Amino acid sequence: MKTMRTKTLFLSLLCSTAIPSIIFTSEKVNLEEDSLQKNLRDAIKYHDITNVRQAINAKVNIDETDENDVTPLMFARSNQNLEAVSLLRENNAKAFGLNEKLIGQPTNNVKELVRVADSGNQTMLKLLLSKKGMDINQQNYYGHTALICATMERLTEAVKFLVNNCADVDQKTYEGDHTPLTIAALNGCPMIATSLLANSANPDKTVMCGRTALMFAAGHGHPITVEILLANKADAEQYDDNDYTALRFATKNGHQNIAKLLTDEAEENHSETVKLLSNEDDWH
Prior knowledge:
By secondary structure, the chain is mainly alpha-helical. It has a domain of 53 residues: Alpha Horseshoe (Serine Threonine Protein Phosphatase 5, Tetratricopeptide repeat), CATH 1.25.40. It is 58% helix and 0% strand. The longest helix is centred in the first third of the chain and has 44 residues. The chain is globular, with a radius of gyration of 27 Å.
């Protein structure tokens, strides 16, 4: 009987000490995860791509949402950190958790419109847009419309669908730092740029620092997008707030092929001007 009581007491003590140990380990893991999440979002915010990569390599949960239900990928998009966006997408990060239960129910929630546009699901987009009161140009708390988000995610078919349904192709984010076209130019998305321009996007609309889509495409080395913009009468001689032209951005960043495109364009325009002036007598 004594032996049985001793054994029972031992097992009781073992269980009572094991439980706090498990709880402590769980709390430690949670603290480490919280710290990694903070480091990841700080790195995204300050465009520190090295620390973004380190956080991902440390196996941080890249699909964790914050108190506003925002994932790291959405946070990177809102901070216009396109390097982080690309890196997160390479690691299969999710932008949103698509809530299919809300599809088919009356809703004015732009968040669902953005989520569905981000999914690229045309059927869901049509269904959601058919609901009373849904505005295709509604903005979320970052000032992003569904079209802006679809452009950032390079969802060509979603962009086509949205512009064909009267999405505002020149809508700026709340801070005025980008339009769909400047994002397409920055990312080097010629098909998206073509869709936007075909639906009357302004190629010379300025955003942050007075920059145009052509300046972004030239500065980031996207020759096909540059050609498309030039074909749509983008002004190659426009200056930004720091007196930079698209040519200067291309030259500064070592994109000689684009610099040649822009120089040839300038020479062609100059020759046409000279030709018009030489034939001035024909105007009378």
